[in-house]
Protein: Adenylyl-sulfate kinase
Organism: Platanthera guangdongensis
Amino acid sequence: MRGYLTYVLDGDNIRHGLNKDLSFKAEDRAENIRRIGEVAKLFADAGVICIASLISPYRIDRDACRAMIPDSAFIEVFMDIPLEICEARDAKGLYKLARSGKIKGFTGVDDPYEAPFKSEILIAPTNGICPSPDSMVKQVISYLDENGFLE
């Protein structure tokens, strides 16, 4: 990203390695998010912009991660995208697995999602049209630029 050292922690990929011992039960989801938060903190401590791309359905878990990261460097991006769009864009087939019962406790299917009260960045459809991935990236970079993270 514009010459800055960055790393993406993908929630699904982390579940194949670091968190392969965890299920989608509430307590395992909390542990999944806690571990990812700890890894993100290590990256941040090393000066790397770490993007944790994952579904974190519970406010309490997101708030715990925020508390781990010093100096207001935790930036929550709330992608307020309708479930039908998420399912249509499901490249990994996870929603299909959840709908067929092969994954239990999947957010939006048979487990709730607690929207944040105040995220730093809100990405949402405009006039019923979902922003493109490129537009979403530009919105995040703009926020980082405007708030001094890319100096």
Q: What stands out?
A: Residues 26-45 form the longest helix (20 residues). The chain is about 40% helix and 10% strand. The mean pLDDT is 90. The radius of gyration is 16 Å.
